[in-house]
Amino acid sequence: MKAKPKVTRKRTSQKRAKTFTGAHALLLFPSGEDHKATLDLMRRFSAAVRYAYNRLLEGQTRENLKRQDGPLCFFSRLNTRHADDAVLKAQAVLDSARERGEDPRKVAFGEGSSLRP
């Protein structure tokens, strides 16, 4: 006895659905100092993303922004790994705005903005 072939449905749209992989986490801090340090790092990282976004709009390169003696590391007190991640996140927001046909100069950062998941 032969198995029946599976019925395949055609997609209504020609584009393939993009998958999203994410994780939710609850951070528990053993002390208030750890909590303060984490919030400070998050604040500096967000400021670095905004700074990198504006510099990318001006035409600066990723390599110039993430250098150890560059503005992100110096002003935000971030290491090169965090600075590079800030530039990559800013580049992703910029590419997304351009892909959607929006004006990249009008992207809003902060509470309830396009950076939230």
Could you please describe the fold and organization of this structure?
The protein is mostly helical. It has a domain at 32-106. It is built from four helices and no strands. It has helices at 32-58, 62-66, 71-76, 80-99. Helix 1 (32-58) crosses helix 4 (80-99). The longest helix has 27 residues, at 32-58. The chain is extended.
Short description:
This protein is mainly α and 117 residues long. The chain has four helices and no strands. The chain has a domain at 32-106.
User: Roughly how many Å is the radius of gyration?
Assistant: 20 Å
Q: How many β-strands, per DSSP?
A: 0
Task: Characterize the largest beta sheet: strand count, sense, and whether it forms a barrel.
Answer: none
- Give the amount of beta strand, in percent: under 5%
Total helical elements: 4
Order of helices and strands: HHHH
Q: By helix and strand content, what is the structural category?
A: mainly alpha
Helix content: 40-55%
Mean pLDDT: 80
Basic shape: extended
Alpha-carbon distance between the termini?
A: 50 Å
Q: List low-pLDDT spans.
A: 113-117
